[in-house]
Specification:
Immunoglobulin-like; five-stranded mixed beta sheet; mainly beta; four-stranded mixed beta sheet; 0% helix; 95 residues
Amino acid sequence: MEADADNAVVIEAGDIYYEPEAVAAATGPIRFTLENVGVVEHDLVVEEVGDVEVVHAEAGETASGTIELEPGTYTFYCSIEGHRTAGQGGRLEVG
């Protein structure tokens, strides 16, 4: 999935997945919207920049957060206990 014209990406978080798992965005500020359709909280953390939390959403909520990234490949994941090890993660290509 490509970011829209405003460099915004929408990720659906369920129990225990992200959809889509692979996204692309332009260099600079990237706005993530996390639509939590699950019954537990989820967040989105970027590993390569110190495991910074970009956005957090309680069950049934939609929340947004922004992060500025240089070109490269990044790993994002849910840091809620057990979620990453269960496979809730993805890849972000910035360029």
